[in-house]
């Protein structure tokens, strides 16, 4: 199942946040998906307003029983999210605790046990 996509174009005002939160909940409810993809490529330069928006959308998704995945985040946005301690799954990025496809761990004969 392909998750629904919410395209965010910026800058987003505080008045628009409530409507976008409702959109996230509606996308999860109507599609039956567990993930909403937020295309953040059009948000513009990241700032604390963007962090606040994404935190609120993530909270709305979790309250609706789902989660959010980011599409096309600016490297500066990813750095800012890391700085404030918000973790988002990013489309095309391997999830933590899962090896990348085609990668196999191998042990060479004679290697010491760890």
Q: With helices defined by DSSP (H or I, 4 residues minimum), what is the helix count? A: 3
Secondary-structure element series: EHEHEHE
Shape: globular
Major beta sheet, specifics?
4 strands, parallel
Residues in helices, as a percent range: 25-40%
Distinctive features:
4-stranded parallel β-sheet, globular
Task: Describe how the helices and strands are arranged.
Elements: E1 5-9, H1 14-31, E2 35-42, H2 48-63, E3 67-71, H3 75-84, E4 89-90
Parallel strand pairs: 1-2, 2-3, 3-4
Question: Explain this structure to me?
Answer:
The protein is an alpha/beta fold and 114 residues long. The chain has helices at 14-31, 48-63, 75-84; strands at residues 5-9, 35-42, 67-71, 89-90. Helix 1 (14-31) links the parallel strand 1 (5-9) and strand 2 (35-42). It starts with a strand and ends in a 24-residue tail after the last strand. The mean pLDDT is 87.
């Amino acid at each position: 199942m392909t998750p629904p996509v919410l395209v965010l174009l910026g800058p987003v005002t505080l008045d628009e946040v409530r409507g976008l939160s409702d959109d996230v909940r509606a996308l999860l409810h109507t599609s039956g998906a567990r993930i909403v993809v937020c295309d953040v490529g059009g948000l513009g330069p990241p700032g604390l307003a963007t962090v606040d928006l994404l935190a609120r959308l993530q909270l709305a998704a979790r309250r609706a029983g789902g989660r959010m995945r980011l599409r096309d985040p600016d490297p500066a946005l990813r750095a800012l999210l890391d700085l404030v301690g918000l973790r988002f799954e990013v489309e095309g990025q391997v999830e933590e605790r899962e090896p990348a496809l085609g990668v196999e761990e191998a042990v060479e004969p004679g290697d010491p046990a760890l």
